[in-house]
Amino acid sequence: MREWTREERYRVLKSADEIVDLHEQICHSAYRQAYHIQPVTGLSSDPNGFVKHKGVWHLFYQWCPWGAVHGLKYWYHVSSPDLVHWKNEGLGLAADTEYDNRGAHSGSAFSKGDDLYLFYTGNHRDEDWTRTAYTCVAQLHEDGTITKLEKPLFGPHPDYTEHQRDPKVFYVEEKQRYFIFIGAQDKDLRGKIVVYSSEELLSGWKFEGELKVPGYESFGGMWECPSIEHFSGKDLLIFSPQYMKYPERGESTNHNGYIVGHMDFDTLTFVPETEFTLLDYGFDFYAAQCASGVNADDHAIMVAWIGLPDNHYPSEEEDWEGTQTLCRKITIDENNRLIQQPVEALKGLRKDTEVPAGTLPYACEMDVEVAEGDFDLNLFTKEDGSGGLTMHYDSAAQRFTVDKSKMDKRFNEKVFEQVYLPALTPLKTMQVFIDHSSIEIFVNGGETTFTAHIYPTEREHFYTISDNGCAKVYELEASVKDDFVV
Predict the structure, then answer these.
(1) 100, 15, 8, 111: which is closest to 62 by C-alpha?
(2) Tell me, what CATH number does 372's domain have?
(3) Which residue, 57, 101, 160, 261, has most beta carbons within 10 Å?
(4) Any alpha helices (H) in 15-90, and if so which ranges?
(5) What is the CATH number of the domain that holds 131?
(6) Using CA atoms, how far apart are residues 404 and 394, in angstroms rounded to an integer?
(7) Are residues 304 and 396 located together in one domain of the fold?
């Protein structure tokens, strides 16, 4: 793996000409995606600024243009009419002020009338590399240009460490106030969310205090990418706790989950009605963000990064890495469980061509039906049925074991190669989405999901299935334009 100097990682992009050859190089990769958002060059990570504005979906992602490395971060902009067909719009936010001289870090968007605002963390570092995090705002204009407010809304709070980032802005009608949740770490190195509010969107912000979540006072060492959503009469708190181990997650110390409960803005208390639950049980899922501007009473739309902050992937050898998940419609059922389903428009990508039994196209959807009993589905096997991503369902325990150690390309072996998926009800269906370097599985209509990077070789495009299961495979059209737009 290449070693990067600080100067290389934090180099400022001055012209698109500097990376055009890199784009041309990675376009020929066998692992470029057909219907997932991916970096135009280099590395993509957290989804940012996800919003529906004037009938168009906008999404930004953390972007380091130079290669598969975390360094100077930009926001890259893509847009879509339907959450499925995405086009590259070019550079969104650049690190070009004294407040964000070492990166425009993660944040959210807010649509207000004809105006669209981007709230982000300005990553400032001085000559001694001491970090100061500022909460900053920019405006996206109709012609695609972006202007930043001259000064940040506010700087870091002194009662917390330098880890204060990822502003999520929202409006609370009953309070007639705007709120911002920010992921933070207290001086005892515990993960927290700090809260600010204002009557005006672009001024007057004041520190309100720390969000209290009873039972989670010492849960992880930093809570990244906090988000709160309200639908179906419930409040949904989403965050990514770091620096902690989680049961049956191997050596991974980065997680992404949710709690269903009730938000009391008078006391700044989120009262849990469920335990912290993983959003996704796959190897690679992080920094989930729900779109603002949806205005739905019964659901939200969510996207996440297929990746983890400390993991490494085979495409790094080709100088690129990172993908966003499919957009998911999320609902809360009568048992306070989060249900995730791929957006309906994805069905429009299905081709009419018949796929030979036992084979997997590079980009496809597999619909699986299962009868009673134990069940095995092995994907990306060789033609003789050996190897692959193996999945075994234990009907007595009602859970999956998923193992990727038999794939030709192994990676992150020391983190984990085997995971367990709880099946909340007996297994009946699986909806599997395979792209060139990723897989997303929705179990029983989205009761449980599994997301991972997978890098099959040319001989790993077959599957085997138990006698008590049947599968229909659809080859899928491409829906993401891999154009070089900066």
Answers:
(1) 100
(2) 2.60.120.560
(3) 57
(4) 20-26
(5) 2.115.10.20
(6) 18
(7) no
pLDDT surpasses 90 at 404? yes
**Does residue 1 carry a pLDDT above 80?**
no
Contacts of 106 by beta carbon, 8 Å cutoff, 6+ apart: 46, 48, 62, 120, 121, 165, 166, 224, 225, 287
Cα–Cα distance, 259 to 276 (Å, whole number): 5
Q: Which residue has the tokens 């138990």?
A: 466
CB 446 within 8 A of CB 281: no
The answer on 422 and 376 residing in a single domain is: yes
What is the residue range of 458's domain? 350-475
169, 110 in Cβ contact below 8 A? Answer: yes
- Phi/psi of residue 352, each to 5°? -85, -10
For residues 187 and 166, what is the distance between their CA atoms, to the nearest angstrom? 19
Cβ atoms 175, 265 nearer than 8 A: yes
What is the residue type of 23? H
**Amino acid letter for position 338:** L
C-alpha span between 177 and 276 (Å, rounded):
28
Same domain assignment for residues 41 and 84: yes
Average pLDDT, the chain: 97
Neighbour count for residue 469 (Cβ, 10 Å) = 18
pLDDT in tens, 335-349: 999 999 999 999 999
* Same domain flag for 299 and 394: no
**434 with 364: CB under 8 angstroms?**
yes
Same domain, 196 and 308: yes
The DSSP 8-state label assigned to residue 454 in this structure reads: -
Per DSSP, 11 falls in state: P
Asked if 430 and 440 touch (Cβ cutoff 8 Å), the reply is: no
Question: 3-class SS at 25?
Answer: helix
Query: What residues pair up with 462 in beta bridges, in sequence order?
Result: 359, 381
Residue-wise pLDDT for 410-449, tens only, equals 999 999 999 999 888 999 999 999 999 999 999 999 999 9
How many structural domains compose the chain? 2
Task: Give the residue from 137, 263, 107, 133 showing the smallest Cα distance to 200.
Answer: 137
Rounded CA-CA distance 270/247 in Å is: 24
Q: Are 180 and 195 in contact (CB under 8 A)?
A: yes
Choose the catalytic residue: 17, 21, 46, 264: 46
Return the structure tokens found at 153. Answer: 């809304």
Q: What average pLDDT does range 204-216 have in this prediction? A: 98
The burial class, CB within 10 Å (0-12 / 13-18 / 19+), for 446 is buried
- Residue recorded with tokens 């959503």: 229
46 catalytic per annotation = yes
Q: Which two tokens stand for residue 187?
A: 């001086």
Specify the pLDDT at position 336: 96
